[in-house]
Amino acid sequence: MKVIDTIARTSLALVVIVLLTVSAYGQSKLLITEFVQTPTAGEFVEIYNPGGAAVDLTNVYLTDATFSGGNTYYYQIVNRATVDQAGGGGSFGDWFAQFPDGASIDPGEFQTISLNGSTNFFATYGVIPTYELFEEDASPDTLPDM
How large is the average pLDDT for residues 43-50? Predict the structure, then answer.
């Protein structure tokens, strides 16, 4: 259980650091209001816009990459040309995600990002997430993938 707790704290810390880059460049702040790793099918990140204006999410990234091999690190994610060139990661199931072009979050709005697809999220919680990390079904749904 201690290993799982350590992984959860590390993953959450990396997601927080990536989202903090939004406020570091003079844009509105975003908050991570929930981060769920269990149940596995229902893993998600929830973000909230506490500000008074919409926030453009087009250049906002999420990652849980903690492994740095070959002098690559998680903060290099914004310098990538492809997912394969993103910093950090490895063969540990790490993921990198960028919000779709034109994505935004309105003032006072919560948004959820399902880490295991919308079908799994719906089966776990009975609601559809705002985004899914990837499409897990044979045929695509209308939910934006990251």
Answer: 94
Instruction: Please return the burial class of 9, using the count of CB atoms within 10 Å of its CB with bins 0-12, 13-18 and 19+.
Output: exposed
> Domain span at residue 116?
2-58+101-132
Does a structural domain hold residue 70? no
Q: Where are the beta strands (DSSP E) in 68-127?
A: 96-98, 104-105, 110-114
Residues 6+ apart with CB under 8 A from 87: 65, 68, 72, 73, 74, 75, 76, 77, 79, 80
Contacts of residue 91, Cβ cutoff 8 Å, sequence gap at least 6: none
pTM score of the predicted model: 0.71
